[in-house]
Amino acid sequence: MAIQISVFIENKEGRIRKAIDTLAKAEINIRALSVADTTKYGILRLIVSDNEKATKALEDDGFIVKGSEVVVARIQDKPNGLNSVLALLDDADINLEYIYAFVGNEPGEGVVAMKVEDTAKARDVFEKNNIKILTKEDIEKI
User: Fold this and answer.
1) 7 and 27: one domain?
2) What is the pLDDT of residues 78-117, one digit of tens each?
3) Which of 28, 79, 89, 139 could pair covalently with 23 via S-S, beta carbons 3.0-4.6 A apart?
4) Range of the domain at 86
5) Same domain for 87 and 60
6) Are 2 and 136 in contact (CB under 8 A)?
7) What is the percent of the chain with per-residue pLDDT over 90, rounded to a whole number?
8) Nearest to residue 46, comparing CAs of 8, 97, 81?
9) pLDDT tens-digit profile of 58-82?
10) CATH number of residue 32's parent domain
11) How many CB atoms lie within 10 A of CB 113?
12) Helix/strand/coil for 50
C-alpha cells in the first residue's frame, strides 16, 4: 500500500501554487496529484517522493495535512485496461471512493491510485489476479 497526503486548501487564488512551491523548496517530487474542490475549500491529494518530509514542510508552512492509505496499482495501458481492474473491485463488493491516474515508467502501463473502503481486501483481490501493487519503493522510482 501507499500513503497519499491530502492538503486542505482554501479555494483562493494562489493557494495550490503555494503548496506546490513549499514542496519544491523541500525538494519533494510529486508523482501524482488530484484536486477536489468546493466553493470554500479544496483537497489537494498527492503521491510524493517522501511523505514525511512533505508533510513536515507543508505543516511548517501552515497547511493542514492528512495521510491516508491508497492502493496504487499498475494497469495495462490499453482500451478497457482500467475497467478490468474496476470489475475486480465490483465483483468483490469493494467500494471505490475515488481514483486518479498517472503515468508509470514501464512501456504499456498506466498507474492508478485508488481509495477503497477495504484496502486489505482490495490488496488480496489484486494479488490473486496478478495486478501489481506498487510499494513506496516502486513509487520513488517513478
Assistant:
1) yes
2) 888 899 999 999 999 999 999 998 877 778 788 999 999 9
3) 28
4) 69-140
5) no
6) yes
7) 73
8) 8
9) 999 999 999 999 999 999 888 888 9
10) 3.30.2130.10
11) 24
12) coil
Question: Are the CB atoms for 58 and 30 separated by under 8 Å?
Answer: no
- Same domain for 44 and 30, yes or no, is yes
Residues 50 and 104 in one domain: no
Q: What percent of the chain has pLDDT over 70?
A: 99
Give pLDDT, residue 22.
98
73 and 136 in a single domain? The answer is yes
Q: How far apart are CA 124 and CA 73, in angstroms?
A: 12
Taking the C-alpha atoms of residue 64 and residue 86, their distance in angstroms, rounded to an integer, is 31
pTM of the model: 0.86
| Number of domains present in the structure of the chain | 2
Long-range contacts of 17-25 (CB under 8 A, 24+ apart): 18/61, 19/44, 19/58, 19/61, 19/63, 22/57, 22/58, 22/61, 22/63, 23/48, 23/54, 23/57, 23/58, 25/57
Tally Cβ neighbours within 10 Å of residue 1. Answer: 15
